[in-house]
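Lecture 7 notes: from sequence to structure.
We start with the chain below.
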Amino acid sequence: MRELDQLLERYLRHAYAQDSEADRGVFLRLLDSEDDRLWRWFMGYEECPDAELAALVQRIRGLPA
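Predicted structure tokens for the same chain:
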């Protein structure tokens, strides 16, 4: 899904290089999620049950486009 790609690329452009290995690991776990779930989390239709992933989703949503 192109919209998800843009959101995830936003993280890669603005935060990935500075993040710790642990934070990068959370991002990799996020990538393992199914697209339909990711879409619902990013659009706020559903809350992510995993606190680390939910925090990353919120962080990515707050990054500049």
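Points to note: The chain has a mean pLDDT of 97. The helical segments are 2-14, 21-31, 35-43, 51-62.
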